[in-house]
Amino acid sequence: xxxxxxxxxPAAGFNFDNAARxxxxxxxxxxxxxxxxxxxxxxIAGVVFKDGVVLGADTRATSGEVVADKMCAKIHxxxxxxxxxxxxxxxxxxxxTDLLSSNxxxxxxxxxxxxxxxxxxxILQDMLYRxxxxxxxxxxxxxxxxxxxxxxxxxxxxxxxxVPYLAMGSGDLAALxxxxxxxxxxxELEEAKELVRAAIHAGIMSDLGxxxxxxxxxxxxxxxxxIRPYQESEFKDNRKIKYRYRPGTTPVMTEKVVPLKLExxxxxxxxxxxx
Amino acid sequence: MAALATMMPNFGQKVSAKSDLVPEWTSQEVSTGxxxxxxxxxxxxxxxxxxxxxxxxxxxxxxxxxxxPIHDRIFCCRSGSAADTQAIADVVTYQLGFHSIELDEPPxxxxxxxxxxxxxxxxxxxxxxxxxxxxxxxxxxxxVYCVPIGGMLVRQPVSxxxxxxxxxxxxxxxxYKPGMGKExxxxxxxxxxxxxxxxxxxxxxxHCRHIxxxxxxxxxxxxxSDRPMR
Lengths: 275, 230
Prior knowledge:
The structure holds two protein chains of two kinds.
Chain A: H1 19-28, E1 44-49, E2 52-58, E3 61-63, E4 66-69, E5 75-79, E6 82-88, H2 90-111, H3 117-130, E7 137-145, E8 148-154, E9 160-162, E10 165-168, H4 172-182, H5 189-206, E11 214-220, E12 224-231
Helix pairs in contact in A: 2-3, 4-5
Chain B: H1 2-5, E1 36-41, E2 44-50, E3 53-55, E4 58-61, E5 67-71, E6 74-80, H2 82-103, H3 109-122, E7 129-137, E8 141-147, E9 154-155, E10 158-161, H4 169-175, H5 182-199, E11 206-212, E12 218-222
Organism (chain B): Sparus aurata
Protein name (chain B): Proteasome subunit beta
Subcellular location (chain B): Cytoplasm; Nucleus
């Protein structure tokens, strides 16, 4: 049976403490337009090959129509043998994977065993189902454990599928086309990496929400190879002007120095017990 | 089990706005949009299903296994929301396993069906799950129970379910006869799910399982192109 301190069941129901604060914040912005949540608008893909699992992702994070982060890390660490790609709302994928990683670390420390991919999947499924799709995290979990090489997808409502290859995110249709064409069982490492790279590349080319570089993560029994970036975007901007200014660029017209008068009002000393 | 603890009502709030770069179907719930069927015969049951899972117009998984084992000789066929049915199946598997250990006996199919009904009926407002429970036990042999959306429970000799089942009501009415043997039931299940897939223009495989008394459970994946259309 699971140890009671591995997973704490949180209090039932939603926590609405922030609702009043959010309403106040809405009023502060112009025309009531609060900033949009950062979505990853992504292409992520995973492939099971002969010796393990290859996960790939693009690195663009969008906030509405603006690229908020050109080098965002979408492949999250869960355990030494398990990594997770996340699509959907960036905050949700970050926090969900962090929580999962913490819980599995506690389990490892308590039991002295490496976690299995199916454990990560079950914890995610429990949590996402409990929130009935309100947590916008579309996740691809891949890992190698004593039972073999596994690739799972978990959707925000909490349904799970185990599949040999997979693509998610806004660029998934383009990526899936490449995967459907090129996937075979028991691929070699280089073939699998090239297939995932081509799939993410197709997503980047065909989808506005995906772009910039390609990250690849290879998980095998021997270890993990997290290659970031695996391929850099050929569309890098060459800035013509430097935005650093020497001290003295702005002329100083007048200078006025006002010393702040501070007096000690109260002083208390606490001895540290260092014995 | 954490999944049993809270089932919250749906506030109908969407996570993503329409103007985002993400297509509509990514925020839709994954549904199985399905054909499932179960037939009992003297000595066991045959169950079958298609293998397609959709989110809106997109096929999320074309090799889904909708025939989920609940216990050694008891299966359930899932249709409706994928998340809901997986969660319910997990809950019932736990409850039935615990019950079976307490009794130190293989559980009855009727017990499994009642456990499904209990969950489906209590949370009927929040759930979207149509389930067929089928299996074999020593007391009553092969049995099929139907637990549709809403949480009704009724035992039937043959049952179909899922959104694609409407296409084979006529087929089942004309081809099912009481007292069929194992081979005929397998034929019926394979032909039934295949007809359904053809009628919905589904090019996916069908998954047929066969649960018999003493012998090991057998199952077969039939690819859509293999079966000749009669």
